[in-house]
Design goal:
heterotrimer, B: mainly alpha, about 60% helix, globular, C: 2 domains, two-stranded antiparallel sheet
Amino acid sequence: MAHAAAVHSAHDTHGHPPTSTGLDNKKIAIWAFIGSECMLFASLISTYLIYKGRSVVGPYPHDACLPPACSTPLKAILNIPVTSASTFVLLMSSLAMVLALAAVETKDQPKHTTGERILGSSKLWLWMTALLGVTFLGFQAFEFTSFVHEGLTIRTNLFGSSFFTLTGFHGAHVTAGVLWLLTLLAIDYRRGLGPKDALNVDLAALYWHFVDVVWIAIFTLVYLIK
Amino acid sequence: MAITATAPAYAPVESYVGESGLWSWLTTVDHKRIGTLYLFTSLFFFVVGGLEAGMLRWQLAGPNKHVLSAELYNQMFTMHGTTMIFLAIMPLSAAFFNYIIPLQIGARDVAFPRLNAFSYWVFLFGALFMNFSWLIGAAPNGGWFGYAPLTTMQFSQGLNIDFWVIGLQILGVSSLAAAFNFITTIINMRAPGMNLMRMPMFTWNAFVVQFLLVLAFPVITIALVFLQFDRFFGTNFYTIAAGADPLLWQHLFWIFGHPEVYILILPAFGLTSEIIPTFSRKPIFGYPVMAYATMLIAFLGFGVWAHHMFAVGMGPIGDTVFGVTTLLIAIPTGVKIFNWIFTMWGGSLQFTTAMKFAIGLVGLFTIGGISGVMHASPPADLQQTDTYFIVAHFHYVLFGGSMMGIFGGIYYYYPKMTGRLMSESLGSWNFWLTFIGMNLTFFPMHFSGLMGMPRRIYTYDSGQGWDGFNLASSIGTIVLMIGVALFLHNFFRSFRRGAIAGNDPWGAATLEWSIPSPPPEYNFESIPRVTSRSPLWDVKTPTLSAEVPHTSGGDQRVNVSFAGSHVGHTDSAPLTSEPRQRAESGMHIELPTGKSARELGIPMPNPSIKPLLCAGSMVIMFSGLLFIHKDNLPLALAVIIGGALSMTFSLYAWVLTPLEDAH
Amino acid sequence: MAHDPSHDEHTTHVDHAAMGMVKEHPTWSTYWKVAVILTLITVVEVWIYYVPSIRDSRAFVPMLLTMSAVKFATVVLFYMHLRYDHRLFRVLFTGPLIIASFTIVGLLFLFGHLRIGAGAT
């Protein structure tokens, strides 16, 4: 058995020497990428915060803009109830994502109860994650269009420029994540994702959760703090 | 079972692609070939940037000259700075990262070979894109720092800044992709026994640089995105009338810009740290301190950015904090200087050309470093900022430091890359002309700067005491150009006529010298097992490495002998380690086998055209933005969407094709 | 080369070492609790936003920042498995996170949004 294990590991690494840390290259790279993304969003968030309260014209995020400051009355832009709902949706998508990864990892373990079978369905949880992600994007589309109707575009003022750019960048990340999940789903339907794919699903999951934690920061810093 | 274990693990399916020819270069994923591509491309742009500098110095040689118009002068100095930083020094460093890191850590390639090819093609296309602006007479003209709001549409209406902002965005993608690749490579592809504290100093410096890239480039990316949005979509990030802060760009730019300085200098430090011990016949002095100093420089490098902005008036607290952190950074930098000096102290020095350049770096960088400490003090900086004193300072750092180190590195590694030595007599002329030319060009700038000559002016009146210094600088530039021309002559001449180098012409200590020159595609026929910081000295000249620690991580030093070139195994892993690790061969010297990787059963990645396609599509996508400026929205959308779709398709084709043939 | 089909059943195991699992990843029983905690914190965050006495107090911003940091850390530690995986990943993430945080704080200070001694505005 020990001999078989040695052959197996040689087979696994395709004749390459084992990695120095024993870790997979891709997982190291994705964490380095996530570290890099921290600085990307730090720049965006800093700019939003720096420009907070500096817009010369309305509308403003938390306060109404009344004449004479604005020619027509403009109400406060941010819609906390809607964004709270979309925040919840994104948090739940993270739960679905960990369950999808767990389902892939345990794909070949026998399932006895209905609960185990539901928890063990990678397709279900990948779909769930992707759909929750799309729902979040739907909320964002609704938010953006209603803001535009209320008189805030990316050109209106500093708040509009920095807000749409920050949340738009986040939304673009979510969109990329959804495409990644759909790609995984396509593979799952074609040949089935199994434990040997756990690492590749893990990469998507890490990216997805990171996009989620960025939103946690944005929700507090942009929406809740006045 | 036994048959399975001994049979070659490699059973190619696709046909073998030839060794040479254009197609093999377009599809290569070999880190050595990509390094070579980087080297040639960046040397080309180094010459371009040098000719631009020559034009600048011609214009400034005397008062009120009319070689260049004011507008053309602006384009020339902007492109000189941008070219030298992004298209010459950074990719020259990348050439060494590509070629040397895998060899130094005992790997057969980088972690992601196709991503590596992608980085190169993005760099090449981005560089061509940016220089294409010359052909339509609209080269960038806002300085390499592109200060907004000066670069917003209100003040820069031409395409000039568009080329700059899009070009930098493209080059950033290349640097980031390469950085993720090298971080992973250095963490994960080291030969058995090569723990972090046994890594060669060049690899250490390169490792730290990758983190600087990964953390600094996102910030410039965002600053550039804001500028792009302002220019193309009418946002207000840099519109002062809308309440924007004129310092936002400056802060974001220098949060990137200061780490960028270390991105430019640390690779040269790394090369110097390889050259000096080799030609002093001594291990590097204070190896751990060198490694920690590099990390400390990088960390502090993120806390000093505003010292580029003392003149804007940040108030006493900001000025004090950034002044003090800047002074602090001189400590780890000084540690490096002294460690190089102590490495040479008592060594048996060999003054090869590479060593001359390395010593040149130690001296000239120190001058640049000391003038840097001078303007770390805000009151002194107010006197010096925006004068030629600053120009003198950073050219001592970037030419006296980075370029001297890179020239040294080329002389040092040329035999590894080509199998032939560069001429030492030409090299000596090359060094002295460069050294004299460099000092004659940049030293007088200290004086013209302190006498009040501002930077970035296209001409000046006589009678201000600057004429002589400027003439000296311009004459120095001619000497410098002759020096560089000699270098190029030596570089190309030695391909055919250089003396045969053999594995290890310098008697160096690190792994890359244990394999043939040029290395075979698989680098190491069998991966060595490393038991010290100077593994090759262990087997060739053990007396030199006697004082280097050899026992760490459970390894023991055994059976090191002088006899012959191959001394067999120094494998000393304890019996408790995994069998597959113990099976690796010990430190040894490899001779040319004349066999391909396939014949030896070594799995190597397949060539692929997809990284090139992906890079090309991405650059097309970015270039679509130019048409927004030209108010041709349909064409812009067509180009952007077409590029994006093409990029997506090539990316999927790339990701879904396995790196190696199926087993 | 003889391809031994018996290898296939070996290769269907998750390569825990390559994924960097030091401790076994948690399961549904932990994950749902984490989700409940995240939801509850979010509810509290939104709730205090609507309570004028808290929203106008000086504790409002620190409270929100703390709760947000707890949520952030929970997702990173449990869902991103940093609590369970190789410490290298922790280093790769926290290093940049620290530099990013310093940068945000430094910028806010330089642009006059933070004052020494006055706390957050």
